[in-house]
Amino acid sequence: MTEPIERAANAIRDGELVVYPTETVYGLGADALSETAVERVFEAKGRSRDKPVSLGVPDVESALAYVRVTDREERFMREFLPGPVTVLCEKREAVPDALTSGRSRVGVRVPDHEVALALLREVAPVTATSANVSGRPSATRPADLDSEIRDAAAVVLDGGETGGTGSTVVNVEAETIVREGPNADEVRSWLDANDGSEAQ
């Protein structure tokens, strides 16, 4: 484990915020199971409390500890994760309502980026939300970070320039793409080809 990853993991364990790269945009990470840490994410972003935040994990197996999934949802996750896709799944009790704005589903993200995955293998789940003040452009380089985010973060992990477009958000059960991003056409094709009519 590299020294920056170790510092970032320790910061998250201590309830602090960390900026980390993904294959889409830079993310703002905190302990996703800590209401206090999640609240810090909302404060740093100036984000409305009625807009939920996703959680990041290193693989699908890890995700299953925090969400309940149907067979179809799990097949979808294993097809598209890791990758620039966020999957809305029914949360387990350990996931705080602060993260989901009281909703029953939480977005699951497994980023396809070696720095993000190295961090998540050390500490997870971590909040997965763009590292920007709400309403401002997402950051694709550390130099693009809003000063408010930079000031709030204990550690900024530099992974170079990222892809630049937020992940595609999918509700597999409802067969809907909530937000279009990378791989949206492939996601739509999968939903059409696996239409949910088969037994769960």
Q: Summarize model confidence as the mean pLDDT.
A: 96
How many DSSP E strands? Answer: 10
Question: What's the structural domain tally?
Answer: 1
* CATH homologous superfamily assignment: DHBP synthase
SS class: alpha/beta
CATH topology: DHBP synthase
Main sheet makeup: 10 strands, mixed
How far apart are the first and last residues' alpha carbons, in Å? 40 Å
What is the class in the CATH system?
Alpha Beta
Measured on Cα atoms, how large is the radius of gyration? 16 Å
Q: Tell me which CATH architecture applies here.
A: Alpha-Beta Complex
Order of SSEs? HEEHEHEHEHEHEHEEEH
Shape: globular
- The helicity comes to 25-40%
Which consecutive residue ranges, at least 5 long each, have pLDDT under 50? Answer: none
Tally of contiguous helical segments: 8
**Strand residue content:** 15-25%
Summarize the structure.
With 200 residues, this protein is α/β, with parallel strands linked by helices. The chain has helices at residues 3-13, 35-45, 60-63, 71-80, 97-100, 114-122, 147-152, 184-193, and strands at 17-20, 27-29, 54-56, 67-68, 85-91, 105-109, 126-130, 153-156, 168-171, 176-179. It has a single domain, classed as DHBP synthase (Alpha-Beta Complex).
